Amino acid sequence: MPLPIVIADDSLLARKVLTKALPPDWDVDVSYASNGREALGLYRQGKASVMFLDLTMPDMNGYQVLEALQHEDLNTFVIVVSADIQPMAQARVRALGAAAFIAKPVTPEAVLPILKEYGLYV
């Protein structure tokens, strides 16, 4: 059974780049969200065992999604994908429950070690 994942980013190009950075043989069912509210909706539909989350999005940003997940005690594996690589941003997302942080632009070489480290890809 494919692993349900969500890629949440307001940029269509960024969503495409991230999708291409995933292992080609990884058995996943990918859903896309262009803002945080859509990402939470997909999570609530059972489509987000893993969530790749941008921080800067309209309507509801990545920090707000992480806060909602934490506040509502929702359980998903979140990997933040952002161009904001400042140490403060990374510390903040980890404090809010993100498991990992990947700097944009995303590459397969950045994604694969994280997936392997957490047992999401063998």
Task: Describe, in plain words, how this protein is organized in 3D.
- By secondary structure, the chain is of the alpha/beta class.
- The protein has helices spanning 12-21, 36-44, 62-71, 87-95, 108-117, and strands spanning 3-8, 28-33, 50-53, 77-82, 100-103.
- It has a single domain (3-117), classed as Rossmann fold (3-Layer(aba) Sandwich).
- The chain has a 5-stranded parallel β-sheet, sandwiched between helices.
- It is globular and about 35 Å long.
- The mean pLDDT is 94.
SSE pattern: EHEHEHEHEH
Q: Would you tell me the structural class of the helices and strands?
A: alpha/beta
- Extended strand count: 5
CATH homologous superfamily heading? Response regulator
Percent strand: 15-25%
Largest sheet: 5 strands, parallel
CATH class: Alpha Beta
Radius of gyration based on Cα positions: 13 Å
Defining key terms:
5 strands
Can I get a quick summary?
With 122 residues, the chain is α/β, with parallel strands linked by helices.
Topology:
Blueprint: E1 3-8, H1 12-21, E2 28-33, H2 36-44, E3 50-53, H3 62-71, E4 77-82, H4 87-95, E5 100-103, H5 108-117
Parallel strand pairs: 1-2, 1-3, 3-4, 4-5
Helix pairs in contact: 2-3
